[in-house]
Amino acid sequence: MPIAPVWRTGTVRAAAGGLAALTVATFLAVTTEMLPVGLLPAIGAEVGVSDSITGLLVTVYAFMVAALALPLTLSTARFSRKGLLLATLVAYTLSNLVVAVAPNFAVLAAGRAFGGIAHALFFSVSIGYASRLVQPAFTGRALALVTAGASAGFVLGVPLSTSLGTALGWRAAFGVLAVVCALTVVIVALLLPAVPGGGTDHKGEGAGSRRMRLAVVSTTNAVVYLGQFTVYTFVSVLLLASGLPPAGVGPVLLGVGAVGLAGLWFAGSNLDHRPRATVVLLLSVVIVGLIALGVTFPALGGVLVASAVWGAGFGGVASVFQTAAIRTRGATPEVIGALVNATANIGIGGGAAIGAAVLAGPGLGWLPFTGAALVLVGLIIVLGARQSFPRSP
User: Fold this and answer.
1) Confidence at residue 1, expressed as pLDDT on a 0 to 100 scale
2) Which end of the chain is more exposed for a tag (fewer CB within 10 A), N or C?
């Protein structure tokens, strides 16, 4: 079987192998980014730092992405797309390996920062790649499939790796993920056809308006992720404080993730028909879930139900914003991918930092209310920005 099949655009079915490889790679990329979330208490206990300091492992990773996504995308526009994608997967492998064997928190943070550099480039390349594998008429479906890998990473990758880390130790979880990333390098090399490089932003009539719409979508993306990760970074801490035993954190997150797949399915089923209504409903569910989490905390039963509602809403969010951004046509797919990646990680890193400040100040019980308020700001922007989030595609 040739390592680099001849690139010919066609249907989603014709590009199935390449799209499957991108989806798996995207799943592992998001799992790598989010892996510390479910293991924060265990990591902090072993390396001798507090939960709020350990949460900076998410912050440093996210801020590397936020700072470097666009510059790296623009500076590598002429490079081989396949070569760049494989390089990022190798970097993920090395990052997870360094974290698995890190003797102290400083080395651990350095390993995470290295992974953040890879992540800064990965999504701009993968999103652009998906759009170039198929003819324009099939771009939406191709992007939905690849974005589903990101959503699945949020809703399944974290709980699965948390369960593994709880059973075998957090270092083992990172070690196993390193091995899986290495295997994915081989899979992508075999299945993914080569495509041409990036290009420049869209020009022509209406370019300024399209870019403004893209800016609104990107900003809203950052605000929503800011609210989500103010809480989600410390979800394991919330669950433990509600009386859940450590061994139960992974299974609970897995259950919440499974519910999140319902949100992903809802988004995929409705984005091509009712995109505005879809984003409004999903964000509303996230807000209701977070408020319910704050009201019921620390009663374990209420926390579990509220977390399920929250997870169901957020399961479709990644697909919603990626699709909305692509449909603005405000830039090339690679640049759009970089902007969505950067703004999401501004939200992830900023949310982790805000959450750490709330944890160290007002206390754990205020996390859900803070997150809900920020997501509400995002919803208000959506309601007012009818051109950026139109009723129909």
Assistant:
1) 38
2) N
Return the C-alpha torsion angle 129, 130, 131, 137, nearest 10: 160
What one-character-per-residue DSSP string does 203-241 give? -STTHHHHHHHHHHHHHHHHHHHHHHHHHHTTHHHHHHH
Q: Whole-angstrom Cα distance, residue 65 to residue 242?
A: 33
Cα pseudo-dihedral 116, 282, 314, 307, rounded to 10 = 150
CA nearest 227: which of 374, 16, 70? 374
**Where are the chain's structural domains?**
16-384
Task: Measure the CA dihedral 309/268/18/94, to 10°.
Answer: -20
Q: Is the pLDDT of residue 226 over 50?
A: yes
Buried b (16+ CB within 10 A) or exposed e, 153-171: bbbbbbbbbbbbbbeeebb
Strand partners, 160: none
Which of 52-66, 100-114, 145-159 is the most confident on average? 100-114
Distance CA 32, CA 115 (A): 8
Chain-centre distance of CA 12, in angstroms? 23
pLDDT in tens, 231-242: 998 999 999 999
For residue 3, the model assigns a pLDDT of 43
pLDDT tens per residue, range 159-199: 888 888 888 999 999 999 999 999 999 999 999 998 876 55
Residues 6+ apart with CB under 8 A from 372: 227, 286, 287, 290, 291, 294
Distances (CA, A) of 77 to 133, 329, 339: 17, 18, 15
Task: Please list, in sequence order, all residues whose beta carbon lies within 8 angstroms of the beta carbon of residue 13, skipping any fewer than 6 positions away.
Answer: none
Distance CA 233, CA 56 (A): 10
- The answer to whether 81 and 132 have CB atoms below 8 angstroms apart is yes
Assign domain 16-384 to its CATH superfamily.
MFS general substrate transporter like domains (1.20.1250.20)
Q: Residue 232: which of 216, 248, 256, 211 has the closest Cα?
A: 256
